[in-house]
Design a protein that fits this description.
Rossmann fold, exonuclease, Nucleotidyltransferase, domain 5, BRCT_dom_sf, binds zinc ion, Ribonucl_H, nuclease
Length: about 400
C-alpha cells in the first residue's frame, strides 16, 4: 500500500506499508511477483490489512482518494477489507486515467506512458509508494495544464471522473436485485460499438449468450447468431492467446471469420477480455452489473439460518468478528461441487476466499449483500450483537 498526500498543489507526505495477506489468500502467483517483485518472504512478519487499515484511514484523514485506473485500487481496498469484515467508511474516489485520456493523445494511457508524456521524472513502476507519488504528480500536472486548482473542477464539468460517481459508493453495496436480466443501465452507456455487428462463439466466462447480446446493444452495437459478410467483430470465448496463431485448429465460426478476414472483410477477432477492454469498463464494474441482474427479485431475501444462529449466540461473550462469523456461516459447512451462491445462485469457485465460501457466497459483492440483509434483520428482531470496532477517531484525526 502506498499513499501520497496532496496539499496546496504539492505532495507533502508519503507513506507505504508491506502487508501480509490473510490466510487462504496468501498464494503468490509468479505472474504477480514478476510485476511487483514482492515475495512471500518479504511480507513474512508484516502486519495484516486489519492492522494497517486504521493507519491508512488516519493518514487519509477523510481526504478524497485518487488513483490511476482507480477501479482496480478501489476493488483491492474493498476486497481486502471484506476479508476481515472491516467497515469501510464512505470515501470518494477519482481516477486520473480518464482525465489523462481526455486531455492527452497517446498510444497507451498506462501510468508510465502518461508520466513520460508529461515529462515527469522516472519512477519504479509497480512499487506502491512510487506509483502513488507518480499518480499524484500526474494529477497535479494535468490540473496545472488545465489551469484548475481542484479535482472537482478538473473532473466534474467534463464529466470525466469515472469510478465511483458519488460519495458513499465505496461502501454502497452492489446487487440490490432491482434490475431485470439484460439491463446494463447501471453501466455508463457509450456508442463505442456503433456500426459493429458482433458474433459470439465458444464458452464465455462471464456471461450467458443473452447477457452478452444485451451488453452489445447497450453499447450501441448489433449482434448476429452466425458469422456473415456483415460481421465486424467475432468474440471467441475459447480463444487461447498462447495458441492463437496461423495453422492452429479453429472452431467452425472462428475459421469462417478467419477466412473472411483474409479475403479483406474488416473483421476483428477478440477474446472476451479484449471486448471488455474495448467497452472501457472494468471487469469489476461489469461483474457487479451482471450480478445485479442475477440477484433479481431477492429484495428482503435472507437465509433463515442467519437469524437462527444469531439468536442462539445471545449471551455469548464474543468479539465482533467472531460473532459475525458464527452467525453468518452456512450450517452445512463448506460448499461442494455444484453448490451455488445463496444470493445470486452463481458458481462458488474453488478460489473464492474461505470466509465467503463458509457463508456460501460467491464474491465480496454477494457477501456485502448477505451482511446488509442480516444486519437489518437482526436490528428488526432486536437481536443484540457486539458493536463493530470504531475507526471514527482515527478517521477524523
Ligand atoms: Zn453470489
Amino acid at each position: 500500500m502506498g499513499l501520497a498526500k496532496i496539499r496546496d498543489g504539492g505532495i507533502v507526505e508519503t507513506a507505504s506499508w508491506l502487508i501480509a495477506p490473510p490466510e487462504g489468500l496468501d498464494h503468490f502467483a509468479p505472474r504477480n511477483v514478476a510485476i511487483h517483485g514482492i515475495t512471500a518472504k518479504e511480507v513474512d512478519g508484516a502486519p495484516s490489512w486489519a492492522r494497517v487499515f486504521p493507519e491508512v484511514l488516519s493518514f487519509a484523514g477523510g481526504d478524497l482518494f485518487v488513483a490511476h485506473n482507480a477501479s482496480f485500487d478501489r476493488s483491492v481496498f474493498r476486497k481486502a477489507s471484506a476479508a476481515f469484515d472491516l467497515e469501510v467508511p464512505d470515501t470518494v474516489w477519482y481516477d486520473t486515467l480518464p482525465i489523462a485520456r481526455r486531455l492527452l493523445t497517446l498510444g497507451s494511457y498506462s501510468l508510465p506512458f502518461v508520466a513520460n508524456a508529461l515529462g515527469l521524472e522516472d519512477f519504479t513502476h509497480h512499487e506502491a509508494e512510487a506509483d502513488a507519488v507518480q499518480a499524484a504528480r500526474i494529477l497535479l500536472t494535468l490540473a496545472g495544464r488545465s489551469g484548475v486548482d481542484s479535482i472537482a473542477e478538473l473532473a466534474n464539468p467534463l464529466g470525466i471522473h469515472s469510478v465511483p460517481t458519488r460519495p458513499g459508493s465505496l461502501s454502497r453495496p452492489v446487487g440490490d436485485g432491482s434490475r431485470a436480466a439484460g439491463d446494463f443501465s447501471s453501466l455508463a452507456a457509450t456508442d463505442v460499438l456503433a456500426g459493429e455487428s458482433v458474433v459470439f462463439t465458444g464458452t464465455l466466462s462471464l456471461h450467458t449468450r443473452a447477457e452478452a447480446h444485451a451488453l452489445v446493444e447497450h453499447y450501441g452495437g448489433t449482434w448476429q447468431k452466425s458469422v456473415t459478410k456483415a460481421t465486424t467483430i467475432l468474440v471467441s470465448g475459447d480463444l487461447d492467446p498462447r495458441t492463437f496463431r496461423p495453422g492452429a485448429e479453429f472452431s467452425r465460426k472462428l475459421q469462417k471469420a478467419m477466412d473472411l478476414a483474409e479475403k479483406g472483410q474488416p473483421l476483428e477477432i477478440l477474446t472476451e477480455q479484449d471486448l471488455i477492454d474495448r467497452l472501457d469498463i472494468g471487469q469489476e464494474a461489469l461483474e457487479a452489473a451482471t450480478r445485479e441482474q442475477r440477484a433479481v427479485g431477492r429484495a428482503g431475501w435472507l437465509p433463515l439460518h442467519v437469524v437462527e444462529q444469531a439468536r442462539a449466540l445471545t449471551g455469548e461473550d464474543l468479539n465482533y468478528s467472531t460473532w459475525l462469523r458464527q452467525a453468518l456461516r452456512h450450517p452445512a459447512g463448506h460448499p461442494g461441487a455444484g453448490d451455488q451462491c445463496l444470493r445470486c445462485e452463481g458458481m462458488i469457485g474453488p478460489d473464492v476466499y474461505w470466509m465467503f465460501r463458509e457463508r456460501w457466497m460467491c464474491s465480496p459483492e454477494c457477501n456485502d449483500g448477505l451482511k446488509r440483509a442480516a444486519k437489518k434483520a437482526w436490528s428488526d428482531q432486536g437481536i443484540d450483537r457486539p458493536s463493530a470496532p470504531s475507526y471514527a477517531a482515527s478517521w477524523a484525526r
